[in-house]
């Protein structure tokens, strides 16, 4: 059953002060997310991920097209009672304590007053804030605010959870906890739709992903399906410090590390690369086929080294 | 009042209290105590008139400042800080949010006015060593002042629904000043001709008639206020407020949140 459906969903803004001109934040988007999936919405910063989430949450209105969640219109309160949302870099009422904030959101979500206290305690414990419930949010770190954000998104036991950059601001342990939480939500039968530009998170978690760039959908599918189409490569490691010109001519990416060289060449050029090493009397240490990663697919789709460099850097940090 | 409006109003009230808005009462208390002592020494026979005039004017000004400076941030601050996202992604209608914010700030102003009213009666008690039957009129003046607050809160909220806090403050304060001279504007409209007359008439009906809700002088002189005036002014204030809030809702319902 489709839980999230968008049909030609589109958003345009007017930019410029004197001469207004239209700018597409999101080109017509057709997307279906099935029940019980963990669905990753990937793209570099400014790709249109947050715009899509805002459209789905009814925070901005589409210029064209439509969307339905749980088979209901986006402005249907019955639907909103069954979804949870974590905005990007959330900021909450800092004059409230974490417990007060969650109570407030629970009340707005229609959580039964008798169950509310127990639910608040349960989600605080679940996000690791059991002892910080009575602390004012102005004293919270960025990571703690992110945890409160996640807590409020699951407080009312929604069927679908939308998370915009849920790992943002979290340390490695926090990121792992959030990954575990998302897997637990899936086991509980919930659908998780999350946006991220950290590809390793998506690769580890998602049943399916969608890649968006400059407001356009570039691909949708399971990670294995998407990466299957990426050109295969092999890693050739040999002893030495020099890179033969013949190897470079094959399109190899070479990196010298101490007294060995690591060269990555397209799989079709494997024999030619080995021949080049033989001619130069260089000793082969290893030859390893490389599995294409989501990052490779991302690079192939987006094709912008500048963007990739930033993404890979973030991914590695 | 539905549950969502009640919870949003309660939270707005809590925000005002925790942001120390009610600390203005300390300044008000100091003003009233100082005035009572001073008036007792320099005014002979008109102490009551001076205390009522000064006290009610202070109540009005303190409240207007709070209504404008909190009201202008009620919506825009929530958009800027993106606290609104987690509210509107819940089963809360946009009109419920506007109504909740309005009732929350209005409630804050009513509580503030009650405390200030205690201060005014305290000062009256001090200068005249007792209260008179005509002092009940002070309560009526306070009621009219609250009606002014309600209108100004609605206006501040209206501007906040589409404009920046600075511009909202300018617009709301301008309307407060013009509205305080609305009767003069109406008189001018009746004697002006041509385009000026049209514009003055339009402006006179568009701006809130706050001067009609200012009965401080009458009350200070002990002049009774008719029941019909109370009923008309109450109806006017409520209708004006509903119209302005409807405008705020209309704009906010179609606004894209950045």
Structure commentary:
The longest helix of chain A has 16 residues, at 172-187. Chain A is elongated, with a radius of gyration of 24 Å. Chain A contains twelve helices and 14 strands. In chain A, helix 3 (98-108) crosses helix 4 (113-126) and helix 11 packs antiparallel against helix 12. The model of chain A is unreliable at 305-317 (pLDDT under 50). In chain A, strand 1 (2-15) and strand 2 (21-34) form a beta hairpin. Chain A has a six-stranded mixed beta sheet with strand order 6-7-8-3-9-10, sandwiched between helices. A four-stranded antiparallel beta sheet of chain A has the order 2-1-4-5, covered by helices on one side. Chain A is α/β, with parallel strands linked by helices. Chain A has two domains: 2-227, Rossmann fold (3-Layer(aba) Sandwich), CATH 3.40.50.300; 231-290, Alpha-Beta Plaits. Chain B is mainly α and 258 residues long. Chain B has one domain (3-253). Chain B is built from twelve helices and no strands. Chain B has helices at residues 3-18, 24-42, 47-71, 76-80, 83-88, 94-128, 136-160, 165-180, 182-191, 194-206, 216-220, 227-253. The two termini of chain B are 29 Å apart.
């Amino acid at each position: 059953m489709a839980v999230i459906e968008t049909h030609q969903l589109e958003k345009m803004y007017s930019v410029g002060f004197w001469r207004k001109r239209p700018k597409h934040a999101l080109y017509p988007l057709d997307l279906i997310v099935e029940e019980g999936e963990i669905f990753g919405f990937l793209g570099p910063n400014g790709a249109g991920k947050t715009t899509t989430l805002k459209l789905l949450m009814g925070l901005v209105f589409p210029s064209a097209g439509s969307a339905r969640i749980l088979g209901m219109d986006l402005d249907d309160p019955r639907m909103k009672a069954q979804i949870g949302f974590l905005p990007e870099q959330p900021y909450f009422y800092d004059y409230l304590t974490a417990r007060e904030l969650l109570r407030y959101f629970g009340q707005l979500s229609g959580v039964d007053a008798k169950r509310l206290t127990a639910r608040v305690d349960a989600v605080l414990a679940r996000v690791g804030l059991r002892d910080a419930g009575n602390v004012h949010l102005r004293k919270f770190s960025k990571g703690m605010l992110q945890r409160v954000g996640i807590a409020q998104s699951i407080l009312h036991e929604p069927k679908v959870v939308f998370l915009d950059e849920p790992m943002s601001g979290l340390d490695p342990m926090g990121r792992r906890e959030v990954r575990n939480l998302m897997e637990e939500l899936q086991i509980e039968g919930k659908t998780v739709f999350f946006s991220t530009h950290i590809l390793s998170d998506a690769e580890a978690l998602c049943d399916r992903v969608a890649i968006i760039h400059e407001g356009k959908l570039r691909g949708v599918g399971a990670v294995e399906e998407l990466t299957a189409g990426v050109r295969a490569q092999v890693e050739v490691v040999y002893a030495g410090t020099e890179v033969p010109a013949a190897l470079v001519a094959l399109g190899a990416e070479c990196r010298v590390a101490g007294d060995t060289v690591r060269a990555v060449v397209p799989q079709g050029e494997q024999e030619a690369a080995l021949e080049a090493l033989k001619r130069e009397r260089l000793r082969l240490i290893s030859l390893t086929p490389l599995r294409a990663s989501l990052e490779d697919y991302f690079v192939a789709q987006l094709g912008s080294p500048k963007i990739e460099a930033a993404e890979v850097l973030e991914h590695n940090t | 009042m539905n549950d969502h409006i009640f919870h949003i109003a309660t939270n707005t009230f809590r925000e005002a209290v925790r942001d120390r808005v009610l600390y203005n009462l300390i300044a008000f208390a100091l003003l009233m105590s100082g005035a009572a002592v001073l008036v007792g020494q320099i005014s002979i026979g008109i102490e009551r008139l001076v205390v009522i005039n000064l006290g009610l004017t202070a109540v009005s000004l303190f409240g207007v400042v709070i209504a404008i400076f909190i009201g202008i941030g009620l919506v825009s601050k929530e958009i800027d800080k993106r606290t609104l996202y987690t509210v509107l992604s819940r089963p809360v209608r946009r009109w419920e949010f506007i109504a909740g914010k309005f009732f929350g700030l209005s409630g804050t102003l009513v509580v503030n006015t009650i405390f200030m009213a205690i201060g005014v009666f305290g000062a009256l008690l001090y200068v005249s060593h007792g209260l008179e039957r005509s002092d009940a009129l002070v309560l009526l003046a306070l009621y009219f002042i609250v009606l002014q607050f309600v209108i100004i809160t609605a206006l501040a909220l209206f501007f906040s629904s589409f404009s920046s806090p600075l511009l909202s403050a300018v617009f709301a304060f301008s309307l407060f000043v013009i509205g305080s001279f609305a009767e003069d504007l109406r008189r001018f409209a009746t004697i002006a001709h041509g385009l000026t007359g049209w514009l003055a008439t339009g402006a006179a009906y568009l701006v809130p008639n706050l001067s009609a809700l200012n009965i401080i002088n009458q009350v200070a002189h002990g002049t009774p206020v008719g029941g019909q005036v109370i009923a008309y002014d109450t109806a006017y204030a409520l209708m004006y407020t509903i119209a302005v809030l409807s405008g705020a809702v209309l704009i906010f319902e179609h606004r894209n949140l950045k």
